[in-house]
Structure formats: C-alpha cells, structure tokens
Amino acid sequence: MSKKATEFQRKAMSRMYRGKEIFKPLNTGWIDENVACVREWVANIFFYRKGDTTIMIDAGYNYDRLAEKMSWLGIDPKSIRHILITHQDTDHVGAVEADSPGLFRDAALYIGEIENRYLIGEVRRRVIYHLYKLPQVTINNEKVLLHDGEVIDIDGIRIECFLVPGHTWGHMVYLVDGKYLFTGDTIWFGADGGYGFISGLAEDNRLAVKSLAALEEKLRARGLRPYFITGHTGWTDNMEFAFAHKNELCSPFRKRVHDPNALYDAYDESDDTEEKAKSGYLKGVGR
C-alpha cells in the first residue's frame, strides 16, 4: 500500500497544493547537535542522537532516497533500532510498511495503543471530512504500544508520550529529554504562528483544536518550553508562536493562514542538497 500511496501523493498532491503556500518542510540537515532531519518532499522525519544511540521519529514515505539522505547526516539505517511513530498515515510510516525496501525491518516501533487499532483493522482511517476511507496499513515490525502520559527510557533517552487526538484518533506527540517535542501532524506553522493541522485531513476537527489547547496547558503547567518540531512546517523554540492560533485550523482555502515564504511546489526537492545539509544548522521560525 505504501508504494502506491507514496506515488499518488507525489503526483496528485503536488498538483493539488501547487501555489497554495501550504507546505514548508525543512531541508535535510541538523537542527542542533542532537536532532537531525531528512526531507521527503513535503514531509520531514527526524533523528535524535544521544551517545551511541540514535532513535528515529516517524518513518516518512516509501521514499527511494532515504538511505542516501541519511548518509549526508552520517546516519546508517542499520543503526536504527527504535522508531517513534506519531500516527499511521503513509507519509509517517511508509518506510516500515510491509511493501517498503525494509531498511528498518529489525527496528522496534513505538506507537500509541489507540493508534494501533488502525493497524489491526479495528477502525479505518478517514479523510476529506470522512468522505474517503484509506486502505489499511500493514506493518510487520515488532511493536511497543504506548499510553497517554507514559514515560519510557531508551538507552538513557527519556521519552514522554502525550495523546493528542483529532488528526487521527490515537495521534501521539513525544517529548524527548524534556527539550524536544516532536509534534507530527498536530501543529501547522503559518507565517503568523501555529494552527491546528489541515482541516480536511482530520478525523475530528473540534477534537483536534481541543487537544492542541490541552497540550499547551500541560506544558505551561509544568513550566516546559521545548523546541516544537513539526512534520511539515519546520520548528520553533517560541512557545507563543507555536500556539498563536491554537483554536483555528489550517485550510488551503483561507489565504491568511498561508505562508508566503512557502515553496510554490514543495514536492520539488531541487533545493535539498548534500552541500546544504552540511553547511550549518537549520533555522527555526517565529524567532
């Protein structure tokens, strides 16, 4: 399923979103000494390195340049033994689906218990305001099921799990070592701050904005101000920017939500090069 879905998005969604000023992914490179990013068209996947361990956050598309771009960062796919999954959409799990090349077949997948219900067929993923049902995703990797508020330790890396339902029923975000919050498809950065993710792709839009507000409340109550690292629109260390429009949703049809600095066609990767990946840290937004 992942190869077919990947090709559909590369072709059809490129035409659909061209000129909409919606997608603004990071290019391949390092955010800082701990966090690396690989760009796969409009999507980003991330790697967190601490000591001798590198964990992966989301597994992107079924993307034929993944190993190549990882090599730009000095990361060997064989070194990846742990992958955190925010949710099961193809642009976040393609590299571990059953029809993928199998770069990470020996890695354990960490995924929310509620989100896993999609993978075992208890529920089906629906988009476009519930009008379109997506095919079931098949993954054969060992899975570790997670719960809201659970804290796990991987080789001295502390990972806290927050359930943020709305985009999918079991969407998780991960706070790593108290500093980096990997948000998947929970927050969408426009030019003037963060919004809830694209309205047409959510299981429940009202729940999505409610969850986003609850996430902010949890972080503020604990005095946490992490890096907010998104799946499609870069990162920020500005909490006010990240939650500026938490009660609103990104829509391709509402111009003011868009970012005039976004690429005309984010599926064109010609500016994502090895030279740039090695030329310095990736800049954040809202700073």
From TrEMBL:
SMART domains: Lactamase_B (SM00849). InterPro entries: Metallo-B-lactamas, NDM-1-like, RibonucZ/Hydroxyglut_hydro. Residues 42-232 form the Metallo-beta-lactamase domain. Pfam families: Lactamase_B (PF00753). This is MBL fold metallo-hydrolase. It comes from Agathobaculum butyriciproducens.
